[in-house]
């Protein structure tokens, strides 16, 4: 990691990084996927490749706060079903980072996110029209997680989630699309994603350190930024109780589209 990159930043650039860290806290406790904006800010202020190593500990801090807030709402059968596929995706993503440049990474992930957002919107509209009279899923229990189709979907999204979170810390929108498509309600969504990303992001640390993306210099910058995650998390906790289910889903999908678009256009 280049020390010049980390410490010769302007006050405005540090303010932008602090705002991005606050948005991480908000996204972890309110609108998952919104931290793709944080990804874009970090990549704009710092070199894109190195920015992923600086952002990772910030994300872990947000994950810890999210777990403390929503730990009772996690759906562990879904998590156990996802983890093996995610591990495959992380390994593939690590290999990909060895040779792929920033442009290839951004374009690939942006296209994936936009495609999945479109598929999710289409599936949900079709489901609403076909089963408007059926009861909604419970707060913690998703639909069809134990069927063959559900298992295939979990594996597919798991690999994509592991890949995108490793190469660009952009796994949030991928898993948001999976959890929405599986029928999670708001608190079950937040509780399950909180544990998922805490475990996955912590497991990424050795890979990122091995690639030189995390070192003493990057951790010093993280120490200066992590305090901004806390107010963002409290703001998200306050906001989520005031957001109904439909608006929550619309915000998650919108954040995914914005994240995918900015990766393609940057």
Features:
single chain; about 270 residues; mainly alpha; about 80% helix; 12 helices
Summarize the structure.
By secondary structure, the chain is mainly alpha-helical.
The stretches of 5 or more residues where confidence is low (pLDDT under 50) are 1-5, 132-140
- The termini sit apart by 23 Å
Indicate the mean pLDDT.
79
What is the C-alpha radius of gyration, as a whole number of Å?
Answer: 18 Å
Question: How would you explain this protein's 3D organization?
Answer:
- Helices cover 79% and strands 0% of the residues.
- By secondary structure, it is mainly alpha-helical.
- Helix 2 (11-29) packs antiparallel against helix 3 (35-45), helix 5 (76-99) packs parallel to helix 9 (186-210) and helix 6 runs antiparallel to helix 12.
- The longest helix is centred in the middle third of the chain and has 29 residues, at 102-130.
- The two termini are 23 Å apart.
- The model is unreliable at 1-5 and 132-140 (pLDDT under 50).
How is the topology of this model organized?
Elements: H1 3-7, H2 11-29, H3 35-45, H4 48-70, H5 76-99, H6 102-130, H7 148-168, H8 171-181, H9 186-210, H10 216-225, H11 229-240, H12 245-265
């Amino acid at each position: 990691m280049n020390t010049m990159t980390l410490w010769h930043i302007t006050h405005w650039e540090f303010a932008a990084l602090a705002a991005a860290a606050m948005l991480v806290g908000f996204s972890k406790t309110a609108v998952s996927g919104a931290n793709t904006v944080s990804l874009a800010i970090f990549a704009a202020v710092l070199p894109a490749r190195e920015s992923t190593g600086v952002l990772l500990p910030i994300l872990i801090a947000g994950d810890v706060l999210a777990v403390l807030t929503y730990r009772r709402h996690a759906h562990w059968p879904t998590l156990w079903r996802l983890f093996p596929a995610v591990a495959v995706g992380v390994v593939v993503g690590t290999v990909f980072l060895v040779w792929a440049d920033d442009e290839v990474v951004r374009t690939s992930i942006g296209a994936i996110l936009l495609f999945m957002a479109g598929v999710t919107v289409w599936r949900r509209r079709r489901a609403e029209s076909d089963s408007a009279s059926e009861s909604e899923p419970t707060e913690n229990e998703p639909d069809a997680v134990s069927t063959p189709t559900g298992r295939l979907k979990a594996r597919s999204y798991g690999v994509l989630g592991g890949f995108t979170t490793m190469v660009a810390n952009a796994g949030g929108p991928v898993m948001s699309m999976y959890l929405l498509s599986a029928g999670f309600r708001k608190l079950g969504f937040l509780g399950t994603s909180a544990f998922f990303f805490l475990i996955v992001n912590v497991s990424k640390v050795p890979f990122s350190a091995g690639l030189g993306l995390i070192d003493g210099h990057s951790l010093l910058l993280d120490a200066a930024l992590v305090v901004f995650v806390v107010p963002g998390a409290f703001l998200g906790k306050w906001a989520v109780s005031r957001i109904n289910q439909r608006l929550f889903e619309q915000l998650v999908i919108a954040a995914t589209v914005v994240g995918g678009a900015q990766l393609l256009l940057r």
